[in-house]
Amino acid sequence: MEAPLEEETPAGALAGIEGLDLGGELKASDEALTFLSSIEPAELLKCVFPDSLVTVSEGGRDLGRFSVTVEFARRVQQPCLLLHAQSQGAIDDSPCGTTVTAYLTTELEVLEEDYHEYVKLDGHSLDMKCHMVQHDGQMLINKVTTVGEETTMKSVSYPMSVLNGLVTEGSNLLLMRLFALRRKVPEHMTLISFDQGLHILQTTFSALGLKQLEVGDDTVEVFGVEETVDSSGDSPITWQCYFLADGHMASRVQVGSPVSMRLLQLQSQLEKGFEKIPLVWEEDMQMRSKFWDRKEELKADHTSYLRRHPEIRALTADFLESLLLRKPDDVFKFAREYFAPFAPSRLLETSPKASSL
Question: What is the pTM of this model?
Answer without folding.
Answer: 0.69
